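Standup notes
- DV: blocked on the single-chain target, sequence here:
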Amino acid sequence: MAAFITTIGLEIHAHIRTASKMFDGCPAEYAGAEPNTFVSAVSLGLPGTLPVVNQLAVERAALTGLALHCSINERSVFARKSYPYPDLPKGFQITQYDQPLCSDGYIDIRTEAGEVKRVRLERLHIEEDTGRLTHGDSGHSLIDYNRSGIPLMEIVTRPDISTPEEARLTFEKIRQILVWIGVNSGNLEEGALRCDANVSVRPADTDTYGAKVEIKNINSFRYVERALTYEIRRQVMVLEAGGTIAQETRGWDEVRGETVGQRSKEMAHDYRYFPEPDLPPLVFDQIWIAERKAELPELPDQRRARFEQIYGLAYRDADLLTLNRAIADYYEAAVAATPDASGKEVANWVLNEGFRLLKDRSEEPERLLERMPVANLAALIELVAQAKITRSVAKQLFEESFDSGANPAQLVAERGLTQISDDDAIRTVVVQVLGEEKAEKAIAEYRNGKLTAVQFLVGMAMRATKGQANAQLVRRILEEELAKPAE
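- DV (later): unblocked, structure below
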Protein backbone atom coordinates (compact mmCIF):
# COMPACT_ATOMS: atom_id res chain seq x y z
CA MET A 1 0.00 0.00 0.00
CA ALA A 2 1.30 3.46 -0.94
CA ALA A 3 2.31 5.81 1.84
CA PHE A 4 0.36 9.03 2.35
CA ILE A 5 1.01 12.26 4.23
CA THR A 6 -1.80 13.89 6.17
CA THR A 7 -2.00 17.65 6.68
CA ILE A 8 -4.46 19.14 9.19
CA GLY A 9 -5.31 22.67 10.21
CA LEU A 10 -7.91 23.79 12.74
CA GLU A 11 -10.19 26.80 12.93
CA ILE A 12 -11.40 27.15 16.51
CA HIS A 13 -14.40 29.39 17.19
CA ALA A 14 -14.67 30.66 20.75
CA HIS A 15 -17.25 32.94 22.33
CA ILE A 16 -15.73 35.88 24.18
CA ARG A 17 -17.22 36.22 27.67
CA THR A 18 -18.87 39.63 27.80
CA ALA A 19 -22.18 40.95 29.10
CA SER A 20 -23.32 42.19 25.69
CA LYS A 21 -23.02 41.22 22.04
CA MET A 22 -20.24 42.24 19.70
CA PHE A 23 -21.82 45.26 18.05
CA ASP A 24 -24.71 46.33 20.28
CA GLY A 25 -25.87 46.30 23.91
CA CYS A 26 -28.09 43.22 23.62
CA PRO A 27 -27.32 40.75 26.47
CA ALA A 28 -24.97 37.94 25.49
CA GLU A 29 -25.77 35.41 28.26
CA TYR A 30 -28.44 33.61 26.26
CA ALA A 31 -27.82 30.01 27.39
CA GLY A 32 -31.08 28.32 28.37
CA ALA A 33 -33.24 31.24 27.19
CA GLU A 34 -36.32 30.81 25.06
CA PRO A 35 -35.52 31.10 21.33
CA ASN A 36 -35.40 34.60 19.87
CA THR A 37 -35.67 36.43 23.21
CA PHE A 38 -32.10 37.83 23.26
CA VAL A 39 -32.31 39.80 20.05
CA SER A 40 -32.09 43.45 19.05
CA ALA A 41 -32.50 45.62 15.96
CA VAL A 42 -28.75 45.38 15.34
CA SER A 43 -28.41 41.61 15.75
CA LEU A 44 -31.47 41.14 13.51
CA GLY A 45 -29.91 43.37 10.87
CA LEU A 46 -32.84 45.76 10.63
CA PRO A 47 -32.42 48.68 8.19
CA GLY A 48 -30.89 51.84 9.59
CA THR A 49 -29.02 50.17 12.47
CA LEU A 50 -25.31 50.79 13.00
CA PRO A 51 -22.75 48.59 14.81
CA VAL A 52 -20.69 49.79 17.80
CA VAL A 53 -17.63 47.77 18.80
CA ASN A 54 -17.66 46.00 22.18
CA GLN A 55 -14.48 47.29 23.85
CA LEU A 56 -14.22 44.47 26.39
CA ALA A 57 -14.47 41.86 23.62
CA VAL A 58 -11.51 43.46 21.85
CA GLU A 59 -9.47 43.59 25.06
CA ARG A 60 -10.16 39.95 25.88
CA ALA A 61 -9.40 38.81 22.35
CA ALA A 62 -6.07 40.65 22.54
CA LEU A 63 -5.38 39.02 25.92
CA THR A 64 -6.06 35.65 24.29
CA GLY A 65 -3.64 36.44 21.49
CA LEU A 66 -0.91 37.19 24.02
CA ALA A 67 -1.65 33.95 25.90
CA LEU A 68 -1.21 32.13 22.58
CA HIS A 69 2.14 33.88 21.96
CA CYS A 70 0.69 36.00 19.14
CA SER A 71 1.64 39.53 18.18
CA ILE A 72 -1.06 42.17 18.55
CA ASN A 73 -1.20 44.13 15.32
CA GLU A 74 -1.21 47.87 15.87
CA ARG A 75 -3.88 48.25 13.20
CA SER A 76 -6.71 45.83 12.42
CA VAL A 77 -9.72 46.28 10.19
CA PHE A 78 -13.26 44.91 10.21
CA ALA A 79 -14.60 43.50 6.96
CA ARG A 80 -17.93 42.45 5.54
CA LYS A 81 -18.12 38.83 4.51
CA SER A 82 -20.93 37.90 2.16
CA TYR A 83 -22.98 35.30 3.99
CA PRO A 84 -25.96 33.93 2.06
CA TYR A 85 -27.41 31.79 4.84
CA PRO A 86 -30.50 32.60 6.95
CA ASP A 87 -28.80 32.43 10.36
CA LEU A 88 -27.39 35.95 9.78
CA PRO A 89 -30.40 37.93 8.56
CA LYS A 90 -28.53 40.95 7.17
CA GLY A 91 -26.84 38.76 4.55
CA PHE A 92 -23.28 39.44 5.66
CA GLN A 93 -21.05 38.84 8.66
CA ILE A 94 -18.87 41.48 10.28
CA THR A 95 -15.49 39.82 10.69
CA GLN A 96 -11.83 40.48 9.95
CA TYR A 97 -10.01 39.39 6.83
CA ASP A 98 -6.55 40.53 5.75
CA GLN A 99 -5.82 42.70 8.80
CA PRO A 100 -6.68 40.60 11.89
CA LEU A 101 -6.26 41.58 15.51
CA CYS A 102 -3.46 39.06 16.24
CA SER A 103 -1.07 36.95 14.19
CA ASP A 104 1.87 34.53 14.34
CA GLY A 105 1.43 32.62 17.59
CA TYR A 106 1.96 29.05 18.74
CA ILE A 107 1.13 26.44 21.34
CA ASP A 108 3.07 23.36 22.44
CA ILE A 109 1.32 20.01 22.77
CA ARG A 110 2.57 16.74 24.24
CA THR A 111 1.46 13.49 22.61
CA GLU A 112 0.66 10.28 24.48
CA ALA A 113 4.10 9.03 23.38
CA GLY A 114 5.70 11.96 25.21
CA GLU A 115 6.71 13.90 22.09
CA VAL A 116 6.45 17.69 22.42
CA LYS A 117 5.31 19.39 19.23
CA ARG A 118 4.84 23.06 18.42
CA VAL A 119 1.72 24.01 16.47
CA ARG A 120 1.94 27.47 14.94
CA LEU A 121 -1.05 29.78 14.87
CA GLU A 122 -1.62 31.89 11.79
CA ARG A 123 -4.06 34.40 13.21
CA LEU A 124 -6.72 35.31 15.73
CA HIS A 125 -9.49 37.56 14.55
CA ILE A 126 -12.78 38.77 16.03
CA GLU A 127 -16.23 38.62 14.49
CA GLU A 128 -19.89 38.12 15.31
CA ASP A 129 -21.46 34.69 15.68
CA THR A 130 -24.37 33.47 13.62
CA GLY A 131 -27.79 32.34 14.76
CA ARG A 132 -28.64 28.68 15.18
CA LEU A 133 -30.47 26.58 12.61
CA THR A 134 -32.47 23.52 13.65
CA HIS A 135 -33.46 21.21 10.83
CA GLY A 136 -36.64 19.22 11.39
CA ASP A 137 -37.75 15.90 9.94
CA SER A 138 -40.62 17.62 8.12
CA GLY A 139 -38.22 19.45 5.83
CA HIS A 140 -38.65 22.74 7.66
CA SER A 141 -35.88 24.59 9.51
CA LEU A 142 -36.21 26.81 12.58
CA ILE A 143 -33.89 29.71 13.41
CA ASP A 144 -32.94 30.97 16.87
CA TYR A 145 -31.23 34.38 16.68
CA ASN A 146 -30.21 34.50 20.36
CA ARG A 147 -26.64 33.58 19.39
CA SER A 148 -26.53 35.98 16.46
CA GLY A 149 -24.06 38.77 17.21
CA ILE A 150 -22.29 37.08 20.14
CA PRO A 151 -18.60 38.15 20.25
CA LEU A 152 -16.52 35.42 18.66
CA MET A 153 -12.82 34.73 18.24
CA GLU A 154 -11.58 32.58 15.39
CA ILE A 155 -8.19 31.01 16.08
CA VAL A 156 -6.59 29.55 12.96
CA THR A 157 -3.65 27.15 13.10
CA ARG A 158 -1.11 26.67 10.38
CA PRO A 159 -1.13 23.22 8.70
CA ASP A 160 1.33 21.80 11.24
CA ILE A 161 -0.88 19.00 12.53
CA SER A 162 -0.19 15.50 11.22
CA THR A 163 -2.51 13.16 13.11
CA PRO A 164 -6.02 13.13 14.60
CA GLU A 165 -4.45 12.81 18.06
CA GLU A 166 -2.46 16.01 17.54
CA ALA A 167 -5.63 17.77 16.38
CA ARG A 168 -7.48 16.71 19.54
CA LEU A 169 -4.59 17.79 21.74
CA THR A 170 -4.42 21.17 19.99
CA PHE A 171 -8.14 21.75 20.52
CA GLU A 172 -7.84 20.68 24.18
CA LYS A 173 -4.81 22.90 24.80
CA ILE A 174 -6.47 25.98 23.34
CA ARG A 175 -9.60 25.36 25.40
CA GLN A 176 -7.46 25.01 28.54
CA ILE A 177 -5.82 28.38 27.92
CA LEU A 178 -9.08 30.17 27.06
CA VAL A 179 -10.77 28.95 30.25
CA TRP A 180 -7.63 29.56 32.32
CA ILE A 181 -7.52 33.26 31.45
CA GLY A 182 -11.30 33.61 31.83
CA VAL A 183 -12.23 34.68 28.29
CA ASN A 184 -14.38 31.65 27.41
CA SER A 185 -16.61 29.25 29.37
CA GLY A 186 -15.20 26.19 27.60
CA ASN A 187 -18.73 24.81 27.23
CA LEU A 188 -18.72 22.78 24.05
CA GLU A 189 -22.28 21.48 24.42
CA GLU A 190 -23.73 25.00 24.40
CA GLY A 191 -21.64 25.96 21.36
CA ALA A 192 -19.42 28.42 23.22
CA LEU A 193 -16.45 26.58 21.74
CA ARG A 194 -16.39 24.60 18.53
CA CYS A 195 -13.97 23.59 15.84
CA ASP A 196 -13.68 23.24 12.07
CA ALA A 197 -11.01 20.81 10.90
CA ASN A 198 -9.36 21.09 7.48
CA VAL A 199 -7.65 17.94 6.24
CA SER A 200 -5.92 16.84 3.08
CA VAL A 201 -4.06 13.69 2.12
CA ARG A 202 -1.33 13.34 -0.50
CA PRO A 203 1.05 10.59 -1.62
CA ALA A 204 4.33 10.69 0.26
CA ASP A 205 6.31 11.13 -2.97
CA THR A 206 4.71 14.48 -3.87
CA ASP A 207 5.03 17.97 -2.36
CA THR A 208 1.71 19.17 -3.76
CA TYR A 209 -1.02 19.39 -1.14
CA GLY A 210 -4.17 17.40 -1.77
CA ALA A 211 -7.65 18.92 -2.01
CA LYS A 212 -8.75 20.38 1.32
CA VAL A 213 -11.86 19.02 2.97
CA GLU A 214 -13.39 20.98 5.84
CA ILE A 215 -15.31 19.22 8.61
CA LYS A 216 -17.60 21.84 10.15
CA ASN A 217 -18.83 22.61 13.67
CA ILE A 218 -17.32 19.84 15.77
CA ASN A 219 -18.15 20.39 19.44
CA SER A 220 -16.28 17.53 21.11
CA PHE A 221 -12.61 16.61 21.50
CA ARG A 222 -13.43 12.97 20.87
CA TYR A 223 -15.43 13.85 17.78
CA VAL A 224 -12.50 15.82 16.33
CA GLU A 225 -10.29 12.77 16.58
CA ARG A 226 -12.94 10.36 15.34
CA ALA A 227 -14.03 12.57 12.44
CA LEU A 228 -10.47 13.10 11.22
CA THR A 229 -9.62 9.40 11.55
CA TYR A 230 -12.59 8.52 9.39
CA GLU A 231 -11.99 11.29 6.85
CA ILE A 232 -8.31 10.42 6.40
CA ARG A 233 -9.22 6.79 5.81
CA ARG A 234 -11.94 7.83 3.32
CA GLN A 235 -9.57 10.04 1.34
CA VAL A 236 -6.86 7.37 1.21
CA MET A 237 -9.36 4.82 -0.08
CA VAL A 238 -10.53 7.21 -2.81
CA LEU A 239 -6.96 7.95 -3.91
CA GLU A 240 -5.94 4.28 -3.87
CA ALA A 241 -8.92 3.50 -6.08
CA GLY A 242 -7.72 6.08 -8.61
CA GLY A 243 -10.29 8.71 -7.72
CA THR A 244 -9.94 12.39 -6.86
CA ILE A 245 -10.86 14.24 -3.69
CA ALA A 246 -13.43 17.00 -4.08
CA GLN A 247 -12.77 20.21 -2.18
CA GLU A 248 -15.88 20.38 -0.04
CA THR A 249 -17.42 21.00 3.35
CA ARG A 250 -18.53 17.94 5.29
CA GLY A 251 -20.21 17.34 8.64
CA TRP A 252 -19.57 14.67 11.25
CA ASP A 253 -22.41 12.22 11.88
CA GLU A 254 -21.61 10.60 15.22
CA VAL A 255 -24.46 8.08 14.97
CA ARG A 256 -23.24 6.76 11.62
CA GLY A 257 -19.59 7.27 12.53
CA GLU A 258 -18.75 9.02 9.26
CA THR A 259 -18.38 12.40 7.62
CA VAL A 260 -21.21 13.51 5.35
CA GLY A 261 -20.97 15.87 2.37
CA GLN A 262 -22.77 19.19 2.82
CA ARG A 263 -21.67 21.60 0.09
CA SER A 264 -18.75 22.54 -2.11
CA LYS A 265 -16.02 24.36 -0.23
CA GLU A 266 -16.10 28.14 -0.61
CA MET A 267 -13.01 30.10 -1.60
CA ALA A 268 -12.10 33.52 -0.21
CA HIS A 269 -13.39 35.26 -3.34
CA ASP A 270 -16.79 33.61 -2.86
CA TYR A 271 -17.26 35.66 0.31
CA ARG A 272 -16.53 38.98 -1.48
CA TYR A 273 -14.76 40.57 1.48
CA PHE A 274 -14.51 44.34 1.64
CA PRO A 275 -13.79 46.79 4.51
CA GLU A 276 -16.76 47.36 6.81
CA PRO A 277 -17.85 50.93 6.01
CA ASP A 278 -19.62 51.51 9.35
CA LEU A 279 -16.65 50.70 11.60
CA PRO A 280 -13.29 52.48 11.73
CA PRO A 281 -10.04 50.51 11.96
CA LEU A 282 -8.85 49.46 15.42
CA VAL A 283 -5.59 51.23 16.18
CA PHE A 284 -3.53 50.33 19.26
CA ASP A 285 -0.48 52.00 20.73
CA GLN A 286 2.23 50.30 22.78
CA ILE A 287 0.72 51.56 26.03
CA TRP A 288 -2.56 49.74 25.30
CA ILE A 289 -0.70 46.56 24.37
CA ALA A 290 1.41 46.80 27.55
CA GLU A 291 -1.80 47.07 29.59
CA ARG A 292 -3.06 43.83 28.07
CA LYS A 293 0.26 42.11 28.82
CA ALA A 294 0.00 43.24 32.43
CA GLU A 295 -3.37 41.47 32.70
CA LEU A 296 -1.93 38.13 31.59
CA PRO A 297 -1.71 35.58 34.44
CA GLU A 298 0.88 32.84 34.82
CA LEU A 299 -0.11 30.37 32.07
CA PRO A 300 -0.61 26.59 32.44
CA ASP A 301 2.74 25.53 30.92
CA GLN A 302 4.63 27.99 33.11
CA ARG A 303 2.81 26.85 36.22
CA ARG A 304 3.31 23.17 35.43
CA ALA A 305 7.06 23.72 35.01
CA ARG A 306 7.16 25.64 38.30
CA PHE A 307 5.30 22.85 40.12
CA GLU A 308 7.83 20.35 38.81
CA GLN A 309 10.79 22.49 39.85
CA ILE A 310 9.64 23.83 43.22
CA TYR A 311 7.54 20.94 44.54
CA GLY A 312 9.42 18.07 42.93
CA LEU A 313 6.37 16.73 41.11
CA ALA A 314 6.52 14.33 38.18
CA TYR A 315 5.40 15.80 34.84
CA ARG A 316 2.17 13.79 34.88
CA ASP A 317 1.13 14.99 38.35
CA ALA A 318 2.05 18.62 37.62
CA ASP A 319 0.18 18.45 34.33
CA LEU A 320 -3.00 17.12 35.97
CA LEU A 321 -2.85 19.82 38.64
CA THR A 322 -2.61 22.57 36.02
CA LEU A 323 -5.33 21.39 33.65
CA ASN A 324 -7.67 23.69 35.57
CA ARG A 325 -6.69 27.01 37.14
CA ALA A 326 -8.99 26.55 40.15
CA ILE A 327 -7.32 23.22 40.96
CA ALA A 328 -3.85 24.71 40.53
CA ASP A 329 -4.72 27.56 42.90
CA TYR A 330 -6.25 25.10 45.37
CA TYR A 331 -3.18 22.87 45.33
CA GLU A 332 -0.76 25.74 45.91
CA ALA A 333 -2.86 27.12 48.77
CA ALA A 334 -2.92 23.63 50.35
CA VAL A 335 0.88 23.34 50.11
CA ALA A 336 1.28 26.69 51.84
CA ALA A 337 -1.09 25.56 54.61
CA THR A 338 0.73 22.25 55.34
CA PRO A 339 4.32 22.97 56.43
CA ASP A 340 4.80 19.43 57.78
CA ALA A 341 4.04 17.76 54.43
CA SER A 342 5.82 17.75 51.08
CA GLY A 343 4.36 19.10 47.85
CA LYS A 344 4.22 15.51 46.59
CA GLU A 345 2.17 14.42 49.61
CA VAL A 346 -0.34 17.23 49.09
CA ALA A 347 -0.51 16.42 45.36
CA ASN A 348 -1.33 12.79 46.15
CA TRP A 349 -4.31 13.80 48.30
CA VAL A 350 -5.66 16.21 45.68
CA LEU A 351 -5.12 13.90 42.72
CA ASN A 352 -6.21 10.65 44.36
CA GLU A 353 -8.94 11.44 46.86
CA GLY A 354 -10.00 14.85 45.57
CA PHE A 355 -10.26 13.88 41.90
CA ARG A 356 -11.90 10.54 42.79
CA LEU A 357 -14.67 12.19 44.78
CA LEU A 358 -15.23 14.93 42.20
CA LYS A 359 -15.73 12.23 39.59
CA ASP A 360 -17.92 10.06 41.85
CA ARG A 361 -20.13 13.03 42.75
CA SER A 362 -20.17 14.39 39.15
CA GLU A 363 -18.75 17.70 40.33
CA GLU A 364 -16.78 20.25 38.31
CA PRO A 365 -13.14 20.91 39.40
CA GLU A 366 -14.05 24.38 40.64
CA ARG A 367 -16.23 22.76 43.32
CA LEU A 368 -13.27 21.18 45.16
CA LEU A 369 -12.58 24.35 47.13
CA GLU A 370 -16.19 24.47 48.31
CA ARG A 371 -16.52 20.76 49.04
CA MET A 372 -13.14 20.36 50.72
CA PRO A 373 -11.88 23.75 51.98
CA VAL A 374 -8.11 24.16 52.08
CA ALA A 375 -8.21 24.41 55.89
CA ASN A 376 -9.88 20.99 56.13
CA LEU A 377 -7.43 19.35 53.73
CA ALA A 378 -4.49 20.93 55.55
CA ALA A 379 -5.81 19.72 58.92
CA LEU A 380 -6.15 16.19 57.56
CA ILE A 381 -2.67 16.09 56.04
CA GLU A 382 -1.14 17.53 59.21
CA LEU A 383 -2.83 14.83 61.31
CA VAL A 384 -1.24 12.16 59.10
CA ALA A 385 2.15 13.89 58.98
CA GLN A 386 2.21 14.13 62.78
CA ALA A 387 1.24 10.42 63.10
CA LYS A 388 -1.96 11.31 64.97
CA ILE A 389 -4.13 9.28 62.59
CA THR A 390 -3.42 6.54 60.10
CA ARG A 391 -3.68 7.00 56.37
CA SER A 392 -6.60 4.58 56.30
CA VAL A 393 -8.55 6.69 58.78
CA ALA A 394 -7.54 9.83 56.89
CA LYS A 395 -9.08 8.54 53.66
CA GLN A 396 -12.35 7.87 55.45
CA LEU A 397 -12.29 11.33 56.98
CA PHE A 398 -11.48 12.97 53.64
CA GLU A 399 -14.66 11.54 52.12
CA GLU A 400 -16.78 12.46 55.12
CA SER A 401 -15.40 15.99 55.21
CA PHE A 402 -15.91 16.30 51.43
CA ASP A 403 -19.58 15.37 51.78
CA SER A 404 -20.42 17.14 55.05
CA GLY A 405 -17.92 19.98 55.33
CA ALA A 406 -16.90 18.80 58.82
CA ASN A 407 -13.40 19.62 60.06
CA PRO A 408 -11.29 16.41 60.18
CA ALA A 409 -9.53 17.38 63.42
CA GLN A 410 -12.89 17.83 65.12
CA LEU A 411 -14.08 14.42 63.87
CA VAL A 412 -10.93 12.78 65.26
CA ALA A 413 -11.46 14.35 68.67
CA GLU A 414 -15.16 13.52 68.82
CA ARG A 415 -14.75 9.86 67.81
CA GLY A 416 -11.47 8.99 69.41
CA LEU A 417 -9.81 8.13 66.10
CA THR A 418 -6.27 8.94 67.19
CA GLN A 419 -3.70 6.47 65.92
CA ILE A 420 -2.90 3.58 68.26
CA SER A 421 0.87 3.47 68.78
CA ASP A 422 1.08 1.70 72.13
CA ASP A 423 3.14 -1.50 71.86
CA ASP A 424 1.14 -3.43 74.46
CA ALA A 425 -2.22 -2.50 72.94
CA ILE A 426 -1.13 -3.49 69.45
CA ARG A 427 0.53 -6.72 70.69
CA THR A 428 -2.76 -7.72 72.31
CA VAL A 429 -4.55 -7.26 68.96
CA VAL A 430 -1.80 -9.12 67.06
CA VAL A 431 -1.98 -12.14 69.39
CA GLN A 432 -5.75 -12.24 68.93
CA VAL A 433 -5.38 -12.08 65.14
CA LEU A 434 -2.79 -14.87 65.06
CA GLY A 435 -5.16 -17.05 67.05
CA GLU A 436 -7.94 -16.80 64.46
CA GLU A 437 -8.58 -19.72 62.13
CA LYS A 438 -8.47 -17.59 58.94
CA ALA A 439 -4.90 -16.54 59.84
CA GLU A 440 -3.54 -20.11 59.83
CA LYS A 441 -2.76 -20.28 56.10
CA ALA A 442 -0.89 -16.97 56.06
CA ILE A 443 1.06 -17.97 59.18
CA ALA A 444 2.14 -21.27 57.57
CA GLU A 445 3.14 -19.52 54.32
CA TYR A 446 5.19 -16.91 56.19
CA ARG A 447 7.02 -19.53 58.23
CA ASN A 448 7.72 -21.50 55.05
CA GLY A 449 9.51 -18.50 53.52
CA LYS A 450 6.75 -16.50 51.83
CA LEU A 451 7.41 -13.26 53.69
CA THR A 452 4.79 -11.30 51.73
CA ALA A 453 2.10 -13.33 53.52
CA VAL A 454 2.53 -11.00 56.47
CA GLN A 455 0.58 -8.36 54.57
CA PHE A 456 -2.61 -10.41 54.96
CA LEU A 457 -2.07 -10.51 58.69
CA VAL A 458 -1.35 -6.76 58.82
CA GLY A 459 -4.66 -6.22 57.07
CA MET A 460 -6.47 -8.36 59.65
CA ALA A 461 -4.93 -6.36 62.51
CA MET A 462 -5.78 -3.04 60.87
CA ARG A 463 -9.39 -4.10 60.39
CA ALA A 464 -9.54 -5.22 64.03
CA THR A 465 -8.50 -1.70 65.11
CA LYS A 466 -10.75 -0.01 62.51
CA GLY A 467 -7.67 1.32 60.75
CA GLN A 468 -6.37 3.18 63.80
CA ALA A 469 -3.29 1.09 64.55
CA ASN A 470 0.15 2.26 63.43
CA ALA A 471 0.71 -0.05 60.43
CA GLN A 472 4.50 -0.07 60.73
CA LEU A 473 4.24 -1.00 64.41
CA VAL A 474 1.70 -3.71 63.58
CA ARG A 475 4.08 -5.24 61.07
CA ARG A 476 7.04 -5.18 63.43
CA ILE A 477 5.12 -6.84 66.26
CA LEU A 478 3.67 -9.42 63.87
CA GLU A 479 7.15 -10.34 62.71
CA GLU A 480 8.31 -10.63 66.33
CA GLU A 481 5.40 -12.90 67.26
CA LEU A 482 5.85 -15.03 64.12
CA ALA A 483 9.56 -15.46 64.91
CA LYS A 484 8.67 -17.19 68.17
CA PRO A 485 8.70 -21.01 68.10
CA ALA A 486 5.35 -22.48 67.15
CA GLU A 487 3.55 -24.01 70.10
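- Follow-up: Residues 4-291 form one domain.
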